[in-house]
Amino acid sequence: MGKKLGVILVLCILLMSPIHSEDTFVQPELLESLDQQEQVPVIVELEKTPDELSRLEELAAADVALEHFSGDFYAAKINEEELQELINDPNVKSIQQDEIFHILLDDSVPLINASIMHSRQNGTTNMTGLGQSVCVIDTGINATHLGLAGRIVAQKCFCAVSDAGSGGCCPDNTLEDDSARDDQGHGTHVTGIAAGNGSGITGVAPEATIVSVKVADAAGDALFSDITSAVNWCANNASLYNISVISISLGGGSYNSICDSFYTPLSAEIHTAWNNNVSVVVASGNSGFTTNMTSPACINKTISVSSTTKADAISSFSNRNFLTDLFAPGSSITSTKYTGGTESRSGTSMAAPHVSGVILLMQQYKESVEGRNLSSSEVNTTLATNGTSIDDSDGSGRSFVRLDAKKAIIAIDNLNPNILLFNTSEQNISTAGNTTFIANVTDINIENVWVEGNWSGAYQNITLTNNVNSQYNQTLKNNCSIVGTFQWRVNANDSKPNFISSNWINSTIRSTPIVTLNNPQNLTLTNNISTIFNYSATDCSSTINCSLIINNQFNTSINTTNATLTEFKVNLSEGTNNWNIECNNTQGNLGYSSTRTIILDTTSPT
Predict the structure, then answer these.
(1) What is the model's pTM?
(2) Domain coordinates of the chain in residue numbers?
(3) Considering the domain 418-510, what is its CATH architecture?
(4) CA distance 271 to 257
(5) What is the pLDDT of residues 314-325, one digit of tens each?
(6) pLDDT digits (tens, 9 = 90+) for 338-347
(7) Given the DSSP bridges, would you call strands 514-519 and 446-456 parallel, antiparallel or unpaired?
(8) In CATH, what class is 514-600?
């Protein structure tokens, strides 16, 4: 009885202020929780690891089971007596409560222009997140859901917030497991927004692969230490699964400024991910605050995401303040339901995976088109400065940016379009035909393709038409006004706009006489030796010399006036005579008529 009274007396004194036993700090809120609960989960910071302790230090160490999860930090569940042991342990630097975080409750994909990007190609590959992975830290995933199955490359669980029978709340009822089976539904819904594909759902990055880490139980609660372990695990396995982004739709305490100092282990893990170009996207919370947001969205280096409606109004429940990086649709979002099919949910939880999905598209573009990864800084800056403006003057008094996948990918496009010309040598083209300009132009964000040239004297532009795949062409109708040599080139720009021109190409339009036969008609039978052949010739030259050819032999010639009916009168030889007209202009260009046949038969019947 005396011992119990002593403990109560000590606790009453301790509750008055933060406790420092030499260098040991004890969080006041922890003392309040112990006054109401028999056991409380805590985070213990040590000066040395247990393996580094001397024999004497081991004897002085608290007899408390500690579970390492990050750096110098360990997780434990303690009662009042164990708290006193930790306070008396000279190796313990600080003791604070292991905070409980909570989950934050398909037409949104076109709204952020993600579906436009899905149809754009690099070669034959669409921009759908292919080759990238998202690591979703939440309540887990239904791995058999038709909208997600086949693309889940890894699962993990860290769940100690409740005890399902064997110490924890992972699917096997332990603290840690290699299964992330969802027993709440929030994680399955969030994952479908980022990367769903099937069962009536097309997520933002529908061909990305998925890594699911379960940290929350069936009630939607998760421990700070488990979230920290999950971020650590995702970052450490980023290379193995090509994880581009970590998506967290969980929230804890409310803060109006950067909160790294309150979550040192988690902040360190997020910074490690950041330094390795793995973005960490976090929902801002659903309390409707205009000055505060929930942790861990307030940690530096995260991308904090608030929610808009599909009409681009700020969702009434959405937290936002000066730390908010981005808005995305979060009201009435239809996505994968963990029991199968789909369901609609609202919350900044739904907004965050939209951003995660766009990051997958951005990283796919940068890797496949430009051969490198975007840095975390590039991702943050690009998203925060390339979207649709959202006015919150009546709320927080600020203006924000709503996510736009198309604008974000255009912003990181640093390559000029590629132009391949099919007719690159100097050409001689007859006025009898037409001049067709053909170019193969490739760029994922191609905007305009046009041919520039001086075929009519002054330089002018003609837009090329996308005929098939990446081929662009346009036909120029030849006429006498463009006879001679001219130069031309193909120009192209994309949406950024990056601009490129091909080399100049020389082409010469030749004026070639066009010969039209009039009489006699083909296969004419006659008994008149003297026969009249008439025709007309048109050309850009006013003087044309035309010759009559009979049976491949020159017969006679005459100067012909342009476009005027002209005739030859000659004596034919008995029998079959094949004839045509050849005309030569002042440029030395020959034009040929078709060949006709006339048969002379002067023999009388017997």
Answers:
(1) 0.79
(2) 2-98, 101-411, 418-510, 514-600
(3) Sandwich (2.60)
(4) 17
(5) 999 999 999 999
(6) 999 999 999 9
(7) unpaired
(8) mainly beta
> In the prediction, which pLDDT does 484 show?
80
Contact present, 315 and 324 (Cβ < 8 Å):
no
pLDDT, tens digit, 9 for 90 and up, residues 517-532: 999 999 999 999 999 9
The candidate with the shortest Cα–Cα distance to 439, out of 428, 452, 458, is: 452
Residues with active-site annotation: 138, 186, 349
Q: What is the pLDDT of residues 92-131, one digit of tens each?
A: 999 999 988 887 655 688 899 898 899 888 877 889 999 9
User: Which residue has tokens 């579906």?
Assistant: 115
Under DSSP, the state recorded for 386 is: S
Distance CA 19, CA 548 (A): 118
Measure Cα distances from 237 to 147, 231, 242, 478 in Å: 24, 10, 8, 63
Q: What is the pLDDT of residue 3?
A: 31
Rounded to an integer, what distance in angstroms lies between the CA atom of residue 322 and that of residue 307?
A: 15
Q: How many CB atoms lie within 10 A of CB 362?
A: 29
- The CATH classification of domain 2-98, taken from the options 3.30.70.80, 3.30.70.890, 1.20.120.450, 3.30.365.10: 3.30.70.80
The rounded distance, in Å, linking the Cα atoms of 578 and 523 is: 9
418-510 and 514-600, same CATH topology: yes
Cβ contacts of residue 368 below 8 Å, gap of 6+? Answer: 122, 125, 131
Alpha helices in 140-252 (DSSP H): 186-195, 224-236, 238-241
Q: 67-70 and 293-294: which strand pairing?
A: unpaired
According to the CATH classification, is domain 101-411 in 3.90.170.10? no
Closest CA to 464 of 486, 488, 438, 489: 438
Q: In 3D, which of 273, 247, 40 has the Cα closest to residue 160? A: 40
Which residue has tokens 């034959």?
Answer: 124
